[in-house]
Design a protein that fits this description.
Blueprint lengths: L1 H20 L4 E5 L4 E14 L14 H4 L4 E7 L2 H9 L4 E11 L34
Antiparallel strand pairs: 1-3, 2-4, 3-4
């Protein structure tokens, strides 16, 4: 019983440090375009295995909200409730919240639905490509 009472403060201290030093996931991606007031949001993006499997309901489609203006900023994070859901499933289920801010007009540097978009291979990066930069047309 005596060793148990000696270890309680250490366990409480370790749990307290884990609580204080743990943080929520927050990522912000900013383009060169000026931001407008319009935002497209996906409140629950359902990812799995601690983010190794990307959200199954992504990409966030910003076309109805932003139109041809594109995206100025993308911000994804976990709310407290989503963090609790991840903790209860031992990170097997990893929900996130995506928010995309529309650009003010013109064309943005990023496509309108760019989260987890499939990237096509360019001729310049294939083994059959010739050396040197690609020619601009």
């Amino acid at each position: 019983m005596r060793t148990f009472t000696r270890r309680v403060p250490i366990v409480v201290l370790l749990l307290g440090c884990c609580l204080v030093f743990s943080g929520c996931l927050k990522t912000r991606i900013v383009t060169d375009e000026a931001a407008s007031a319009e935002q497209a949001e996906l409140p629950w993006a359902h990812g799995f295995v601690n983010g190794l499997v990307p959200p199954i309901n992504a990409p966030l489609n910003t076309e109805p909200t932003c139109g041809g203006a594109g995206v100025s900023e993308v911000y994804f994070r976990q709310t407290f409730v989503q963090l609790v859901a991840q903790g209860l499933t031992s990170s097997l289920y990893t929900p996130q919240r995506f928010t995309a801010t529309c650009a003010e007009g013109g064309t943005a540097s990023a496509p309108s639905s760019f989260l987890y978009e499939k990237v096509e291979t360019h001729r310049y990066f294939t083994p059959e490509a010739t050396s040197g930069p690609p020619s601009s047309k």
